[in-house]
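Q: Please design a sequence for this.
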């Protein structure tokens, strides 16, 4: 159940990241509003997760998978470039997240 809350927080944060990009530095107020609105339940869910999973593992998982999803969002939605360095770095992040959660 706790991992479901963690992955829900990751998905909500990734959607919030989409609106953050669309807000153009908080100049477009409706997108800025949605960003803030989505980050509130994200941090609430993280606080619940941290009751059972250590803070370092929670944050590493949230940020690592969030980086991966946000990068994919950038590539597929915003047409940002992906190169070998980015793929290599994302691979290292994901391996690290998996190892943290296994041990």
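A: Design:
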């Amino acid at each position: 159940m706790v991992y479901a809350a963690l992955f829900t927080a990751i998905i909500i944060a990734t959607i919030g990241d989409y609106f953050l990009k669309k807000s153009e530095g908080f100049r477009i107020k409706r997108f800025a509003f949605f960003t803030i609105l989505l980050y509130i339940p994200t941090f609430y869910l993280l606080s619940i997760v941290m009751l059972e999973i250590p803070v370092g593992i929670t944050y590493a998982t949230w940020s690592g998978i969030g980086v991966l999803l946000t990068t994919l969002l950038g590539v597929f939605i915003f047409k940002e470039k992906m190169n070998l360095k980015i793929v290599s770095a994302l691979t290292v992040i994901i391996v690290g997240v998996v190892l943290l959660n296994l041990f």
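Q: Thanks. Anything notable?
A: Residues 2-102 form one domain. The two ends are 19 Å apart (CA to CA).
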